[in-house]
Every structure is written in C-alpha cells, then in structure tokens.
Design goal:
With about 110 residues, the protein is an all-alpha fold. Helix content is about 65%, strand content about 0%. The model has no long low-confidence stretch (mean pLDDT about 90).
Length: about 110
Amino acid sequence: MVLQLTLPEDLEARLRQESQRQGSSPDALAIKLLAEHLPASPPNPAAAKAAEFAAMLNRWNDEDAAMTEEENASNLEVLRSIDQDRMSYRQLFADVLRDESNDPDSVA
C-alpha cells in the first residue's frame, strides 16, 4: 500500500535525523515505528468469545476430572432427580445415566 503523508516540518526533521542515526531510510523508520505502535490487528469479537467459551469448557472438564467419588455420585443423583421430576417423558440426561449404570464402580 502506498500512503502519502504531509508531515509538519519539525516532525519530518526528527524523522530524517533519527533515520540517519539508525542508518535507515525515513520510509523504513516510519514503517518500523508504525508497526511497533499500532495494534497487530483489529480484535475479532467472535474469536474472542469462542476462546472464552473453550476456556470455560476446559475448566469444567478439569473440575469434573478432579471430583471425588462422592461428588460424582451426588451429581448423578441430581441428574437422575431432574429426569424423574420432568413433566415430559423425554429424559435430558439419559446418556450420562446410562453410561453410569454400565460402570461397575458406579454408585447406583
């Protein structure tokens, strides 16, 4: 991209002086300064939300992995109660409870 700027005389003089001191061209120094002081890219709200959501799911996974047998049994009992108390015949946690019932170490 070609960008033409009209600089005030004092700023142009400072840019030329600093570029000579660094042994580069004024153009190269201006590009370097812009790259150092501008954000890398505009923020992407969707990507930020997706990363936040993934981090939350990872935390929940870690918490589940760290649960004691008693906590796990208590959680399963809550899920079982929710399914039993529903007005609908469609169970929400059938997969979890079915997997739990096939586990020989599970507490029924």
